[in-house]
Structure formats: structure tokens, C-alpha cells
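Usage

Read records sequentially. Each one opens with the input sequence:
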Amino acid sequence: MENVEKAAPKKEEPVAVPNHTKKIKSQVLAIIGKPPRMDRVEVSWHHGSKYRVNIWQQPKSDKDITVTSSPRIGLSYYLTVSDTGEIIESNPPLTKSHTAA
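and closes with the structure output:
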């Protein structure tokens, strides 16, 4: 009987996902403006063409309280983007509500 080696089944190569985080961040801020007390903007890829954008803000200072508080998510958007990183859809809708800084 002849020894026949069976080749291991090939694993699918992972699909490279383009990194559109910088482009998405700049588009969001261009549309809504810079929110007051903005700490940072986080853009995270979820799946397919879906991204989550969280805008962290420092809490409004209360002059009667001397406790330091941590930044919190003030605004959050769930986006659908094109293959080139252009925003197609946003939930909630992106609306200009802040002055650009």
C-alpha cells in the first residue's frame, strides 16, 4: 500500500480591513464642530463597513465641588462608511451643534 499524505486544508487568509479612522474622525468633527470640553475622539471598527465613534468630554466643572472627575462619553455615533472611508450613514444623525475651534 502506498503512503499518501493528505494536505492539510488551507485556512482562509484574513481579509485586510482598510484603516479609515483618521478620515472618519476628521469628517465627524468637520460636520458637528468641536464639542465643548472635548477630551478625545475614539474611532473603532466593528465589522464590515461599520464604525463606532465616541467623543469623550470633560465634565462641566462645578465650582462648589473640588472633586476631579474623569472624562466621559458625551457623544456617540454608529457609522456606515464607504470603501474609501466616506461617511454614508450615521445613527444618530451627525448635526452641527458646536462651534468649530
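Summary fields computed downstream for this record:
- The chain has a mean pLDDT of 83.
- The CA atoms of residues 27 and 87 lie 8 Å apart.
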